[in-house]
Amino acid sequence: MKQTTFSRTLVEWQRSCGRRTLPWQAFDTPYERLVSEVMLQQTQVATVIPYYERFLKRFPTVESLAEAPEEELMRLWAGLGYYARARNLQRAAAHVVSNLRGKFPTRVKGLLTLPGVGPSTAAAVAAFTSHEARFPMIDGNVKRVCARIRMIPGRVGQKTFEKKVRQCAKALMPGSDLIADYTQGLMDLGSQICRKRNPKCTLCPVRTLCRAADANPEDFPKPKKSLEKKERHLLLGFAVSAEGLWLRPNSDSIWRGLWVPCVREIPAEESKGLLFPSDFGLDAEWKTVCLGNSQRELTHQRLFIQAAAFISREGALKAEGYSAFLPGRDEMPGMPTPVRTLAKAALQVAGYSV
């Protein structure tokens, strides 16, 4: 396969059929592009768009992000998941402001010096800002496209497979005049056409160049071996009084920097019991309303959550570090998605409109 045939065909398709109105596509500057690339890691475009727009409205410059209080940063990121991304993004902004005089690098070598920025992210940002065409962007979509185009055997994560994918991605790259549209085309091809399941091969612009098209594309690549996840059993107690919903900043690694209610981790064998106010240092006058059980899958952990609301019009939570948030008076702080959902339920059973 000729590199120019693949890349030019893909670029022509992207220019006529690819996505061209995404909010970050209005920028060819590294700050805005880095924010989008970090948010898009393991997160779908439709989910990212409103977060991206709110984020840039609040932090329009690298200086404003570098100086932001962590609580406000996490509030804007709450619900997007993979919260280390937000902290690394702020660390990168602080590095640019403190060590690079506010001037963002646009080439791969410089981008790789930023905290939390890896080769794939650096290559994508460089393609859109400096049109550097020496380093291929290799994310999950690109690995899938390359594996099918060349029928590369093996599974994601295997040393031989990853090496062959890098060689393929490098060989298919165009020159700098096409690299931006080519990189976007690869993203669009992988997400819209060459999907993990049910690929739309009949609509693929490079179908005639794909070795797997006449085989079973879904066999390439083999999925990455799943890691055994640590199971954690959590009790969440949402105390609600006349002063509002009581929350505190979390210091646990999974939700660090976000706000949570009373949290207690228990052994698996104790996870079937009922929740009582005394479990969280509250007296018996707090009415208990069960909010049910749920399960949450994280990258390396599986959370089993049992939740209850504790309601008292007269009481107050005396434990150190808690603050009350009253609907209609206070803006709710950043909470993890499962916590936010349960918090709304707790407020509703307590008679508050949310």
TrEMBL record:
Gene3D superfamilies: Helix-hairpin-Helix base-excision DNA repair enzymes (C-terminal) (1.10.1670.10), Hypothetical protein, domain 2 (1.10.340.30)
Record family assignment: Belongs to the Nth/MutY family.
Domain of life, per lineage: Bacteria
Gene Ontology biological process terms in this record: base-excision repair; mismatch repair
One Gene Ontology term of the molecular function aspect: 4 iron, 4 sulfur cluster binding
Keyword Iron-sulfur: yes
HhH-GPD domain residues: 39-192
Catalytic activity: Hydrolyzes free adenine bases from 7,8-dihydro-8-oxoguanine:adenine mismatched double-stranded DNA, leaving an apurinic site
InterPro entries tied to this protein: A/G_AdeGlyc_MutY, DNA_glycosylase, Endonuclease3_FeS-loop_motif, Endouclease-III_FeS-bd_BS, HhH-GPD_domain, HhH_base_excis_C, HhH_motif, MIG/MutY
Keyword Nucleus: no
CC cofactor: [4Fe-4S] cluster
Top EC class of this enzyme: hydrolase
Organism of this sequence: Sutterella seckii
Assigned keywords, A-Z: 4Fe-4S, DNA damage, DNA repair, Glycosidase, Hydrolase, Iron, Iron-sulfur, Metal-binding
Protein name: Adenine DNA glycosylase
Enzyme Commission number(s) of this protein: 3.2.2.31
Pfam (any one): HHH
Primary role: Adenine glycosylase active on G-A mispairs. MutY also corrects error-prone DNA synthesis past GO lesions which are due to the oxidatively damaged form of guanine: 7,8-dihydro-8-oxoguanine (8-oxo-dGTP).
